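During the second half of the funding period, the structural biology subgroup turned its attention to how the target accommodates small molecules. The most pressing case was flavin-adenine dinucleotide, which had performed well in the primary screen but for which no bound structure existed. We therefore specified the complex as follows and requested a full 3D prediction, including the ligand pose.
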Amino acid sequence: MKPFDIVIVGGGGAGLYAAMEAMKTNPALNIAVLSKVYPNRSHTSAAQGGANAALANKAKDDSVEMHIFDTIKGSDYLADQDAVDVLCSEAPKIIRELENIGTPWSRMEDNTIAQRPFGGAGRPRCCYCADKTGHTILQTLYEQCLRKGVLFFNEYFALNLSVHGSRSRGLIAMNMKTGKVEAFPAKTVIFATGGYAKMYWNRSSNAAGNTGDGQAIAYRAGIPMKDMEIVQFHPTGLRKSGLLVTEGARGEGGYLINKDGERFMARYAKEKMELGPRDLVSRSIETEILEGRGFDSPAGKYIHLDLRHLGADLIKSRLPQIREMTLNFEGVDPIEEPIPIRPTAHYSMGGIDTDNFGRTVMDGVYAAGECACVSVHGANRLGGNSLLDILVFGRIAGHTAAEEAGKFEPGSISEEDLRESVEDIRARMQPSGHYERYGALREELGQTLALNVGIFRESSLLHKGIQDIAELKERFKKVRVFDSSDVFNTNLQQVLELQNMLDLAETVAVGALAREESRGSHTRIDFPVRDDEKWHKHTLATLVDGKATPGEKPVTMGRYELQERTY
Ligand SMILES: Cc1cc2nc3c(=O)[nH]c(=O)nc-3n(C[C@H](O)[C@H](O)[C@H](O)COP(=O)(O)OP(=O)(O)OC[C@H]3O[C@@H](n4cnc5c(N)ncnc54)[C@H](O)[C@@H]3O)c2cc1C
């Protein structure tokens, strides 16, 4: 295959914005997007609530500066302040650019773009398209990419970077339709493969494909991961499935109620109540449950999210998808009854370490979106800031790669380079002797993470989690694929995804044990306070000689000094 200028792995919001911007920067470039699902089925399409931008349509006194401060405070001061400046300053431009290319934003009465309140934000600045914001953004971007001539390789599963010395020569991927392993020689590669919270299995709001493949590929190639221990739990996952009820439901005025009928958030965030930041609201719900004020059911303990007082009209017009989901997955109509909810693993703040231009430490390799850690979210992401992150930094990474592609020699990937990936797969497909089943391991991984590396963390629990993951990794060596077909071998794909999740789970648990403090979403019962002296820094995990090697990086400060975080 002729070398590409840019190969983008991932067709979510980050990957598609990167592709669109790269084409705009230099229309002569040869750009490919690879995606293991059809691009418009990427997890971005599940984003309901919206994207933040200080447009000041709803609150006239809102400003970019307030958005910057809310984001830094929300991050518990672990975000890099120069990166947050970029995120919030670019936000109004991004929302308008999307509007110009056809995104149907919801409107206010005066026809300006509507904005709703979101957790941890001082002003209502979340722009939305009913409760289908990600879906509409993704459709708009996909149309633009097709129109501009981006080449799509859909249902291709990325396996590895081809690295020679310290240089990437491109990507190795499997065509899921044929089972063939193919080479994508490229001057530059952008990872935009989304998050890894699906490792928590059914205690996760994420799509089945959010298995951290890009991070694991980069990690195996020696690129450092940053702040992997910091995982966000969203307060309102459906009790049985972990599926998400958007923060927009509380933004529209929904209440959280315990079994004594109390709006208990008054105990934890007197002012912000249900619209406190996610880490705080999740801890509050979990505390209510642990102290016996939750409801009980065969599917586990839970709390009520009550929308009934909002009325049928508002629920049907602003939260239609939520109503459909709760009807389908809990058998509950939120117009008539409260929704049973419990916190759910939702977002990976950590990821591939990049600079503000999307560059990693490896020349010609970039990352953007949830798989990257720039870092704009630090220890806790605010609702509405992730769609913004993938759009702003997807665009920047696309622009940087387009500008820099000319600097790198075109890569070439030989048959020999492909052989290792092919042999790995073949070995998996030959059942012999004692073997392990993929399904059991995947569930055990989710269980140990939810139990031992969950919302409340503690040394003995984390040691247990690390030990369990090590044992699962050992057992994984015996996992075999029993579907021998070459065509859409989804069992093979799941096994490869499990391998990626196991590699990353280790970095999450080891990082969580190392960080002896509580900051944002990372709560240590045995180290309950934030320790700025020892831990105001990013953690790094790099694979050296097959071993996870810890490192660290300073946090970039700016106008805002460290302060206590109260709501
Ligand atoms: C239910 C839900 C609701 C959310 N709501 C909001 C919200 O309202 N506001 C907000 O700001 N954020 C929200 N978020 C977070 C936000 O949606 C995500 O962080 C963001 O969409 C991630 O975008 P992305 O482009 O980085 O990755 P994704 O959209 O996850 O796309 C990843 C892409 O990578 C591809 N890929 C992955 N692995 C491979 C591989 N091995 N080979 C080839 N391709 C691969 C996939 O096919 C896919 O195209 C929500 C998240 C969830 C789960």
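Two results from this model are relevant to the next phase. The first strand starts at residue 4 and ends at 9. The CA atoms of residues 130 and 448 lie 36 Å apart.
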